[in-house]
Amino acid sequence: MNANDKQHSIDVDVPVRVAYNQWTQFEEFPRFMDGVSSITQVADDRLHWIVDIAGVTREFDTTITEQIPDERVAWATTSGPSHAGVVTFHTLDDDTTRVTLQMDFEPEGFLETVGDKLGFVSGRLAGDMKNFKSFIEDRTESSGGWRGTIAHS
Q: Which residues contact 88 (CB under 8 A, 6 or more apart)?
């Protein structure tokens, strides 16, 4: 893991299928991710993001590089700020799933570099994971799900 890798895990009280299905509903990320204004799913493997970081709006595109139902979703940017990540899902028991999010990113500009060094990015990711836990546990069912597979490229 390099200095720009951030990793957070959280246990959610739902079955792995429910946690995974909800995570594949990318357009709902703004409901639990601070700073994400919108996500548009352009194709099964392509997303367009609009985020607001410390009052700065950024737009970028990502490609899903690997998707295996109930196991993992990996992505990388194709435009805009450089980052990549993977979220994995681990069954702890029939009704509990460990969700682990790992991101690797390159801060752009002075403010993002300072924010990263002060732990703001890490804190935001941890907060987003807690928000996901509340979001999915309050529902007990996912709002949908895409069960397709995207092979590692």
A: 71, 72, 99, 100
Q: Measured between alpha carbons, how far is 60 from 50 in angstroms, rounded to an integer?
A: 7
Phi, psi of 24 (to 5 degrees): -75, -5
Measured CA to CA, the distance from residue 123 to residue 102 in angstroms comes to: 13
* 5 token code pair: 């890798």
Tokens of 34: 């601070």
CATH class of 5-139: alpha beta
**Domain range list for the chain:** 5-139
Name every residue whose Cβ is closer than 8 Å to that of residue 144 and which is 6 or more positions away in sequence.
21, 24, 25
Q: Tell me the sheet residues that pair with 11.
A: 98
Other C-beta atoms closer than 10 Å to the C-beta of 77 total: 18
Which residues are within 8 A (CB) of 78 and not within 5 positions of it... i.e. 6 or more apart? Answer: 46, 60, 61, 62, 63
In percent, the amount of the chain with pLDDT more than 90 equals 54
Confidence bin at 103 (pLDDT 50/70/90): confident
Predicted TM-score (pTM) above 0.85:
no
